[in-house]
Design brief:
The protein is mainly alpha-helical. It is 76% helix and 0% strand. It has 23 helices and no strands. It starts with a helix and ends with a helix. 30% of the residues are buried.
Length: 412
């Protein structure tokens, strides 16, 4: 019967999809391609309507297979993509974008630009309005490639000027690319979203032509507009811009404070700590200690010699002055149960000593103050340092032994 035929066909189709999935998971690209061919042929008899249409399945599965298949070429991939563009009007611009990404990954810049230009001129009744966001992305990526061309012309112009030549044609072409890039990049970053690469390129264009106020406005909007998602990079770009402009320490600290709140493990926390330590305000120096302690809570910082040097320096200053020992105590109270095993084991002492003497010095000083002269890490490193007749390690041992009562006060 007709119903029985449809049921058997659905089972067969589902089984075929299951085989394709299994082949993809096992990275058996040839086997997956064979099953996909069977699947495509069988779909000619399928008249069912599903939430995810067959054309989208073919597009996504086929793209994955062709990208990894050892015998596929960029020419075959492009032919496949052109076929996919005709299969689904609703997905036309998405397929175009994916095609462009693959072209760019293969260094085919001109072909990618040509595809973007063709996609930008695409019109299909009401679908044009529905796919407005995809169209803006198409225009944005075209702006990105215009920026790329602008940067190339700029480098040529600089090389010629160093040789004493002036090329008016190159300069005019460069300005032409600037105008096209600026228009499209400016449009995309008005839409709430994460547009890091587009923002960076647009700001670079503005800075080159001396429009620093516009660049500042763009970066402030990107970092502080509540309609945009929280984005650490937005604050990084603003900080880097302010630093290039020679802005006050207050402005730089303000930008990094927000970055610290979002990503306390960011690499710029070293800069943040350094600026805070140089401040005359007690509140900022207190924040500096909090910042460096927080950074060292993360595994990625465990062997960061600069970070341990920053903490060692501040801890040493506090111990010598005997002021604000409560700052250290407050930070240590929430860490004393897990930092010893995380940072100050004998195993780590041996490894740090072998790999980086500066790292082991900073950690040993901190360990000695926080855990006392009986700490395994401090004992091993100070012993090795004295054995190697390194003066700074002899002084380290004397310093910790002399200030051992501080450990008792910190430990409570």
């Amino acid at each position: 019967s007709s119903n029985e035929h449809k049921l058997n066909f659905k089972k067969s189709k589902d089984a075929c999809l299951s085989y394709i999935q299994d082949a993809l998971l096992q990275k058996q690209w040839k086997r997956a391609a064979e099953f996909l061919t069977c699947f495509v042929e069988s779909l000619e008899k399928d008249y069912s309507r599903e939430h995810i249409g067959p054309s989208e399945m073919i597009w996504r599965i086929g793209t994955e297979i062709l990208w990894h298949h050892s015998q596929s070429s960029m020419k075959e991939f492009s032919c496949f993509m052109e076929q996919m563009k005709t299969l689904g009007v609703k997905r036309y611009l998405k397929v175009c974008l994916e095609h462009v990404f693959h072209l760019l990954c293969n260094g085919q810049i001109d072909e990618a630009y040509q595809n973007l230009s063709l996609a930008e001129s695409w019109r299909f009744g009401e679908q044009t309005a529905i796919q407005d966001k995809e169209m803006k992305l198409i225009q944005a990526y075209r702006g990105l490639l215009d920026y790329y061309s602008w940067a190339k012309q700029k480098n040529i112009l600089f090389e010629n000027s160093e040789d004493g030549f002036s090329d008016l044609a190159v300069e005019q072409e460069m300005h032409g690319y600037f105008r096209k890039a600026a228009v499209n990049l400016k449009e995309i970053i008005k839409i709430p979203g994460v547009w890091d690469i587009f923002v960076k390129c647009y700001v670079d264009l503005l800075e080159f032509y001396g429009d620093h106020n516009e660049a500042r406005q763009v970066l402030n909007e990107y970092a502080y507009n509540s309609k945009f998602p929280a984005n650490p990079n937005a604050h990084v770009y603003l900080y880097q811009f302010l630093k290039r402009q020679g802005e006050s320490k207050k402005s730089l600290i303000s930008a990094l404070k927000i970055l610290h709140d979002i990503v306390p493990s960011h690499e710029l926390m070293i800069d943040f700590n350094t600026m805070l330590q140089k401040s005359k305000k007690r509140k900022k120096r207190r924040l500096g200690l909090e910042v460096i302690f927080a950074a060292l809570d993360y595994a990625g910082w465990k062997e960061n010699a600069k970070a341990w040097s920053c903490l060692a320096r501040q801890v040493k200053q506090i111990v010598i002055s005997e002021k604000h020992l409560d700052w250290i105590k407050q930070e240590w109270n929430s860490r004393k149960d897990w930092w010893p095993a995380f940072h100050f084991s004998r195993y780590l002492a041996k490894r740090n000593w072998q790999e980086n003497k500066s790292l082991s010095y900073g950690k040993a000083l901190v360990a000695g103050i926080l855990l006392g002269k009986g700490c395994k890490y401090f004992k091993y490193v100070s012993h090795q340092g004295c054995k190697a007749q390194l003066k700074r390690f002899r002084m380290l041992k004397k310093f910790v032994n002399r200030h051992n009562p501080v450990y008792l006060r910190i430990s409570g």
